[in-house]
Write a structure and sequence with these properties.
The structure holds 2 protein chains of 2 kinds. Chain A contains 10 helices and 7 strands. By secondary structure, chain A is α+β, with helices and mostly antiparallel strands. A 5-stranded mixed sheet of chain A has the order 2-1-5-3-4. Chain A has a two-stranded antiparallel sheet with strand order 6-7. In chain A, helix 3 runs antiparallel to helix 6. The radius of gyration of chain A is 21 Å and the shape is elongated. By secondary structure, chain B is α/β, with parallel strands linked by helices. The chains are: A alpha+beta, B alpha/beta. The interface between A and B is large, with 59 and 64 residues. The structure holds flavin-adenine dinucleotide, iron/sulfur cluster (2 copies) and FE2/S2 (inorganic) cluster. The site of flavin-adenine dinucleotide has 44 residues of chain B, from helix 2, helix 5, strand 6, helix 6 and strand 15.
Chain lengths: 245, 640
Amino acid sequence: MAKQAMFRIWRGDSSGGKFRDYVTPVDEGMVVLDAVHRIQAQQAPDLAVRWNCKAGKCGSCSAEINGMPKLMCMTRLSDLNLDMPVILEPMHAFPPIRDLVTDVSWNFRVKKTIKKFRPRSPDAPDGTWRMQQADVDRVQEFRKCIECFLCQDVCHVLREHHKHDEFIGPRYFVYVAALEMHPLDTEDRVKDLKDKYSIGYCNITTCCRQVCPEFITITENAIIPLKERVVDQYFDPLKKLLHIL
Amino acid sequence: MAPLKIESKLPSGPIEQAWEKAQFEMKLVNPANKRKYNILVVGSGLAGGSAAASLGELGYNVKCFCFHGSPRRAHSIAAQGGINAAKNYQNDGDSIFRLFYDTVKGGDFRAREANVYRLAQNSVRIIDQCVAQGVPFAREYGGALANRSFGGAQVSRTFYARGQTGQQLLLGAYQALERQVDEGTVQMLPYTEMLDLVVVDGHARGIVTRDLLTGEIKCHVGDAVVLASGGYGNVYYLSTNAKGSNATAIWRAHKRGAAFANPCFTQIHPTCIPVSGEYQSKLTLMSESLRNDGRIWVPKKPHDKRPPDQIPEEDRDYFLERRYPSFGNLVPRDVASRNIKMVCDEGRGVGPSGLGVYLDFADAIRRLGRATIAERYGNLFEMYERITGENPYEVPMRIYPAIHYTMGGLWVDYELMSTIPGLFVLGEANFSDHGANRLGASALMQGLSDGYFIIPYTIGNYLASNKLEKVGVSHPAFRSVEAEVVAMTKKLLSINGTRTTTSFHKELGKIVWDKCGMSRNAGGLEDALGRIRGLREEFWKNVKVVGDSNDLNASIEAAGRVADYFELAELMCIDALDRNESCGGHFREEYQTSDNEALRNDELYSYVAAWEFTGVKSPPKLHKEPLEFHYVHPSQRSYK
Ligand SMILES: Cc1cc2nc3c(=O)[nH]c(=O)nc-3n(C[C@H](O)[C@H](O)[C@H](O)COP(=O)(O)OP(=O)(O)OC[C@H]3O[C@@H](n4cnc5c(N)ncnc54)[C@H](O)[C@@H]3O)c2cc1C
Ligand code: SF4
Ligand code: SF4
Ligand code: FES
């Protein structure tokens, strides 16, 4: 029964590294993270990998598997071609720390720059609010985000053009959408979207949506409606006309 | 060390007014003085995150530590089912008293009445607080909050957010925390693990930490220390707990003088995905809410290897429905788990390992339609399918019990202070409110009640009542604890043996699971104690820890945690052996009714067992805190 598979894992740190091959038996039902643990237990005890929940919820185990940004704990070996080496690398859009672990702290710094939730005053005298399930569902989709940053990793604006100083990336458009579309929120973040967060750099390639392990419709439900808000507020043709006159 | 004192500081008078009265009697810190106090909070899950945010908002100077890169990675994120609150929105007769009653009874009469009553009172405020943070709880048609019922309760009082309640609550707490970080009252220290506690003149005055990226060992001074580091379920190696969850913070505090209460009260959750292979590193929980509509069964005949769809109705045994006609599949977790183990021990388990039972939705789908089931459990089904490759709409799920929660923890008084003055313990890390068994959806409630609504008052009382001397990191107490921490790391690195930490942990976990897990007996526990001690000796001679101390080194992190598990596992077995009765999650085979139900012994064991550490190889000292019941009369639990 025990089948063997080869894993080609990137080993190194911020000063550089190289791929090393590990052959290990695989059983039915295993995910990539199980294989990594088996390699860690039997061949490479110093292999660095971050994980916590093994349930696709904590967002710690992001990596690139055969070139695709994925969660190691939710990628079943039966979905990969094991006749070829399985290539495991850390995410490319962020600085490597060691082996499969990257430094994603840039994301947390970006998040701090976004204006926080500010609810309207309560609807009922007992200090509570009324909300419709449809409105709840809309923000719920965005709040499913587990901050795995796989979408950030795949987005060419960050990955290839390194616009980390100007562009907040798909994850944070999702976050802004969760706040902007929250039925109780009263803050305005539209100007920031245009000026500080450069939403205009996104050309809707939908790569981010395709890798999201929570299946958040990042582009259609978050980015496009936000772009529309920016357009409505700043590029309204009528307003422009008035401006010219 | 000062002699250990167990003083619960329970308020007197009618229970309904007890907490209000206690708050009124507490000393206050002048608002202008608050920023002069430094508070160290260890942990940023629900309990730690809510505490740090609330203390920051009051104006204290807070440092909050966690070993993750961000608070949002904490174990709390994974909670699926929901959070209880006695709002009685459904008008089905719920009330604060009823939630209190259910919790005391569910805990099999091993919790303090006053604590539980306060928890039930606070539950109502938690929901309002979380909505104000933007937590999107499910709503009814009229826009009001929706509820559902959850294992062990006959009323609908569980608030939920589509199978991700923990995540939504944690995002709320995280946002409140970030707000305080912006205000400058809270400083977050991610990737920082507490390795020891520093006690000066009998008061908790600081901690020693390791930077997980650089390996740097550092001291931090505070006027009070708050531990909110979660439970110790990972002693068992395989559990539903997040991998990072560990016992180091509470165990090292225990070794510095904090009593450990009821260590043997651990909870098994009946609905986990069965173990699939030897190298599996963690188990996955399926929410208990599935038992609302799924039916649990096994084949009637042992070793029946037919696929489930070829086993006709008359060859199936719906054993929970058969044995517990009124609660059926909804019996509490401990009862369900033991029954599942029993049928598997009879050889009637299903799946490749024989350690599993079916949780079948076929009837529910027939009755309610696939769409309704998808609406209720869609994301759970999806997760199950992603992990097992089987589609639960077509094939019944397979489940098996696993360790899920630890009711035991550091002993705390009514003000959540441990036996070390100035050391407070919140959330799953303390022992306080669930007795011998926790009800579903009550852990989130307790963590947030501790963090948002209790510690903000009680810490002020401590600070205002104690004049603390100024100390710095050069104080001899800090120097010596730091030296001990460094020495331990050096020691682990120098052993250079032949066995990995994981292999020790796995073997230890197996012993504890077999002998101090779902059911226990005196012979088994004695045997376990001998084996744990032997294995611990081998660990300190033969463990292989690789890499450097001044680097990101998971090997060192793991070895230190497993070293603590050995000592804690021993205490769990000692406690289990000492408690000659069955109650809640602690099932001693010698003490059961003729129906195989847990048989308590209130005359001899109606107490909290608080253990004092006296040295690694010397027996711990037992202190008893007697429990009194004035409002809920202890009765034999019955779910027939
Ligand atoms: C799969 C699953 C589902 C659950 N579902 C529910 C549910 O539906 N309803 C419910 O009420 N309960 C549920 N529970 C239980 C509940 O989630 C936990 O009891 C609760 O979240 C614990 O919160 P906490 O804040 O005490 O600890 P945790 O969330 O475990 O947080 C611990 C924190 O401490 C930090 N920490 C620990 N040790 C150290 C150290 N040495 N140094 C620095 N930092 C440290 C960690 O970094 C982390 O931030 C569930 C549990 C599991 C496993
Ligand atoms: S759609 Fe926009 S944000 Fe998403 S990957 Fe493409 S460019 Fe980046
Ligand atoms: S939006 Fe999706 S891919 Fe991006 S961080 Fe969140 S969960 Fe990950
Ligand atoms: S381990 Fe948490 S998402 Fe993979």
